[in-house]
Design goal:
The structure is a single chain. The protein has six helices and two strands; from the N terminus they run ααααββαα. By secondary structure, the protein is mostly helical. The protein has a two-stranded antiparallel ribbon. Helix 3 crosses helix 4.
């Protein structure tokens, strides 16, 4: 048997060996893509159950506003790599529902800072309790070590986001 690199149909040395080595990786990437898509669909459906008038994007923005203890619309657009008009439409819906309010920034009254209202905080608290219960049920048989690894992998994946723009998974 020869140790010489193999050639593929394209004539590239080692291409057959590389393709064979990449097959398990490609299969794993297919599973990841399929499962993340299923996860995103379930998240959208769960968001609709929490408040039928709040799309997942709006819920995510509301949650981020609360996490940051207030932020500007431009901060949301930058964080989520969204167009400002998209953020503006989502915020208008949240304001109409009485879930978000604008307040002048203490350091510059020309700047408007978004804050959740009491109703917005109540929606978030209900959603958080429902999500936590769902995750506890789904992951009840996982060991603490498995949960730590899973959490670490999710953090690693999300921290490797493409700075050029959102993907279909974002």
């Amino acid at each position: 048997m020869s140790d010489a690199p193999t050639a593929s149909a394209t004539g590239a040395p080692g291409a057959s060996r590389d393709a064979a080595a990449d097959a398990p990786r490609e299969a794993s990437l297919d599973v990841i893509q399929r499962e993340l898509t299923a996860f995103a669909r379930r998240a959208r459906a769960a968001a609709a159950r929490v408040h039928p008038e709040i799309p997942l994007v709006s819920y995510t923005l509301l949650s981020h506003i609360e996490d940051r203890r207030g932020c500007r619309a431009t901060d949301l657009a930058a964080h989520y790599l969204l167009d400002k008009s998209t953020v503006s439409r989502q915020l208008a819906g949240l304001e109409k529902l009485g879930l978000v309010e604008r307040r002048p920034a203490p350091e510059d009254h020309r700047v408007q800072v978004l804050h959740p209202t009491e109703a917005g905080l109540a929606v978030l608290a209900t959603a958080q309790a429902n999500r936590r219960a769902a995750y506890q049920e789904r992951l009840k048989d996982w060991s603490g070590e498995d949960l730590d690894r899973f959490a670490g992998y999710l953090l690693r994946y999300n921290n490797a986001a493409d700075p050029a723009g959102p993907t279909e998974l974002d």
